[in-house]
Amino acid sequence: MLGTRRLTSRNAMLSGATAVAALLATYGWASAASAQTTIKVGYSSAYVFDEDADSVSYWNDIKKEFEAAHPNVTLELQPHGGTDTDEMNAIALQYRSPSTTPDVIQLPTTYIGQFQSSGYLLPLDKYLSSSAFWNRFPKNIQDEGRIDGSVYAADIGENNTGMYYNKEMLQKAGIAVPWSPHNWDDILTAARAIKEKVPGVVPLWIAAGTSAGPTGVLQGSGAVIFSSKTPIIYDTKTKKYVIDSPGLRDVLQFYKDVYSAGLGAQLSDLFSPKAVAVPVSLMAQQKLAIALGSNWYGGAWKEKNRHWAEAATAAGATAFPTSQGQSPGQGGTLGGWDVAISKASKNPDLAWDLVNLLQQRKYMVFIATKAGFVPPDTEVAKSPDYVNYAPPFNGEFATFLPYDKLLPSNDGFAVWARGIEEATGQIAQDPTTSVSAALKTLHDTVVNQLGADEVETMQ
Amino acid sequence: MGSDTRFQLGHRQDKPRFELSSAALLALPGGFLFFLFVGPIVYALFLGFTNLQLIGPHAQRWWFTGLANPTRLMHDTVFFTSVKLTLIFVVGSGMVGQTLVGLALALLMRRSLMPIRLSVGVLVVAAWVIPEVTAAFVWYAFSQAGGTLGILTRSPHTNFLFSAPMTTVSVANLWRGTAFSMLVFSAALRNIPSEVLEAADVEGASRFRRLWSITLPLLGPTLVTNLLLVTILNLSDFTLIYTLTQGGPGNSTMTLPVYIYQEAFNYYELGYGTTISLVLILIGAALSLLFVRTSRSAA
């Protein structure tokens, strides 16, 4: 019995080894037979475009064109659902192993610094210098991918900030249109007049609270900070985050003025997880007079579910002014979606061909109109295909672009963003909160996470 | 030679048999156990003392940082808030809330008519078997401004996730998780011999007296086991709170699992997030030991 059993187990082992050998042989044969190269691209399928169908057709067209131009190459599309943060988390996990790392990734501007500092991205300078499109990008957009002198990511569409207003409501309140406020007091004056003379509408939307994450800063408080006396969030000289400055104090006082006079939106709307999109719907429903918002509202009003047919004539757009009208007169944030090549890519030249394809005019116009971006290429931004898609807003926001500034994108920004959002949220929730108390909230959150030596007070 | 003696004596059935040759066979499943369970725990223990990031300067270049993370933890005010909130959640919503409501339901259902028992059972268990994220969305809609809860309490403009966030998530969790305790207690009640209760009835014991002196003492061991399981289930609960509030407004519902997620996947501090998760393991282990002790002394 014993002997037989041993024999059986040896047989089993032998046959196991044969199977493994056979498997290896098959695998080797298969990989030798196919000279097919695969380029993998990871992107956000649910957050970039307004409608998922547009995302599908955009990427399918790109795949078709890329594969037609490169016969033995397969472009593997790797869509990621959820928000921008969800996409970044999924891709960050893929980067933990070179075998799962995609060749090309689509990433929001605020993440470039973190991926670059991880050592994950390939410098693109040698490709960009010989490319046709790069020279047509304004310097502030080129700079969003530039770290320590090298460029690691190229923009494919920008978001920037400005104000939208309902012309009829402003006129009812006795304010002349087209409206162009010259300082923050002009905004408060208009909002107060609306509160008094146009009952039942929210006078002014200005994002507060933590619900939208870093995007809440990009499309809200960041624009106010960049229009203040000290438009600095991260001091690049000292490499520290600013947690107190004359400008920040003015910003929080502005929030206090808005919310203590009851000029702001309801807290449940401000603090809703969908807060970023709320002002778009409120304006379409004639429930909101003025919004500090993002460039994509005009395109969103062309959609079915938040349609506002008269938007082009009933609403106006204007730049967000500096606090006291000081030079340059207006300010805002800049941050969009970029594409980058992984350092781990085995085929960087092919990856570059894909990046280059994404920058072609037809794709840039498609994503700018269907996702709501200002095209980074100045010629495309002036082109009729783009400007006439959502007039007058697309054209207006393109003119704001040179005044807009980038948010920091290093690994401390998520913490600082949370800190400032807790501070603005605190004021919106309880407008009796003093500016110093709100600054203490910012200080406590940032120091608690980053440490006391990573922050500074600016005079 | 060894086999000779064995054949002469025959197999002894009264002693645990161990043969050296079987050690080799046992090594395989033993190794699996080690790599699948002990390995990750030891690895996590190690990661908790490093500066590993998901993305950032320490994503690829990370190292052992000694006591840096525990020191940071000791000065982390959000962490202490988080421990407090976790205990409120586990004790208030889980150990007290789910256990008491589950027990009450089980007791009442025992005495009720078949159709009522069946329909109540189905309803309560339904809340438990639907995916947690679905339950969270139901409660999100229920507690919004203009939601059913606001209409019922005649305050239609109140957003309860904002005005009373911790209470709302705790009640939502109680609603969702009660079925588990109810099922455990229902099963235990069926095992209480009816003769004992009938005898007490004959002796003229009141209904309350029978519950207090017979049913509850007999349920003792079940109660302890249930508390242990409820604690483990609630301590690591993430989905419900994250879906409802993401830990907010501010940090007012930031329980440890949500805070760990925030550190690891919003701030990308994998190392520090792991340090906090080690504390969560410690709290869980301490509570479990307490229950096991109690159940031993009770038995």
Strands of chain A, total number:
14
Considering residues with a beta carbon less than 8 A from a beta carbon on another chain, report the largest interface and each chain's count. Answer: A-B, 34 and 24 residues
Name of the CATH superfamily of the domain at 68-190 and 223-298 in chain B = MetI-like
In terms of quaternary structure, the protein is heterodimer
Q: Do you know the CATH architecture of the domain at 68-190 and 223-298 in chain B? A: Orthogonal Bundle
According to CATH, the homologous superfamily of the largest domain in chain A is: Periplasmic binding protein-like II
Q: How would you describe the shape of chain B? A: flat
Mean pLDDT of chain A: 90
Annotate the secondary structure layout.
The complex is a heterodimer of chains A (459) and B (299).
Chain A: H1 2-33, E1 37-44, H2 52-69, E2 73-80, H3 84-94, E3 104-108, H4 112-117, H5 125-129, H6 139-142, E4 146-147, E5 150-151, E6 154-166, H7 167-172, H8 184-197, E7 202-205, H9 214-225, E8 234-235, E9 240-244, H10 246-260, H11 267-270, H12 278-284, E10 288-294, H13 297-300, H14 311-314, E11 315-318, E12 332-341, H15 348-358, H16 361-371, H17 378-382, H18 384-387, H19 393-400, E13 404-406, H20 413-429, H21 435-450, E14 455-457
Parallel strand pairs in A: 1-2, 1-3, 7-10, 9-14, 12-13
Antiparallel strand pairs in A: 3-12, 4-5, 6-10, 6-11, 6-12, 8-9
Helix pairs in contact in A: 9-20, 10-20, 10-21, 20-21
Chain B: H1 2-9, H2 20-47, H3 68-74, H4 77-111, H5 114-129, H6 132-143, H7 148-152, H8 160-163, H9 165-190, H10 194-202, H11 207-235, H12 239-245, H13 256-266, H14 270-298
Helix pairs in contact in B: 4-9, 4-11, 5-9, 6-12, 9-11, 9-12, 10-11, 11-14, 13-14
